[in-house]
Amino acid sequence: MFKKTALVAGIGLALSVTAQADYQWELGGDYTYGEINVDLRNSPLGNKSDDIDENVGQLYGTWYMENVDTSKGPLNEAAFLDHASNITVFATDGKVDLNSLDDRLEDKDGQTYGFESRYVAEGPGWKLSGWLMEVGYEYADYDTTVDTYHIGIGKYITPNTTLVVDYQSIDVDADNGGSTSTDGYSADIEHFFAFGNGGLKVAAGGGKIVVSGEDDIESYNVGGMWYLSNNLGFGAGYQNTSQDGYEINSWAVEANWFITESFAMDLSYGQNDFDDRDLYDNTGVYLGKLELEQDIARLGAKFRF
Question: Which of 6, 25, 127, 183 has the fewest CB neighbours in a 10 Å radius?
Fold first, then answer.
């Protein structure tokens, strides 16, 4: 499994490389630690509280079809501001510590693999100039396997503003032979406000997942990143997910620091707050009120050349 030390093993090398502005490759990774607080209240068998630990590591690589110009604003937004076409491949490896919840349970491992791509049509006199297409795929292998495909169409409606409409298909195959398929739709807008040396990046979006025989899952999100300089930014975001009156409210704060023009560190902390839910067994006997809360911390690094 991906180790925490892999994030910082190359820092000395990265800092020793001569700083360069433009780049065509980006390599990165991150480590995420999560803790789910599980509380069962008002249970006939007594109250119970437990924590479930999660550890996930990710590695990725991005290739840009042309050199990315970093002179247009914050280094973290260089690809967005330069309308850069790119392809990213990624892999994650994670573990959920279920044994800490119950000694009879085994810890669960899981991996994901996939790619993301964006192509931006650019060129003088092109009728499609400014239009963009996004295509992605992810394969997830847990106790079930999940194949997720998506395709998006959008446009740079201004040099610093994108609007993208996306379609998503999710196929789930369980180990017991059962399978389900869902379709999702979303729309997202991003805009960068330039303020000299720095600026403000804002984003908002919303969408739904259509579940056969069930209420749709709906979500919306808002967020922003304030860049104090072209090297340093602080951000925050909020997301609401709901289905049939049950809601999950999520928020996060983050920081991005380019220590050099080629090497950056990212740090974020967030929380998912789940609505309380009453639990019953198969015969209708009340088991108690389930309360869930998840804390997530992430440390990442990336290097460009």
Answer: 127
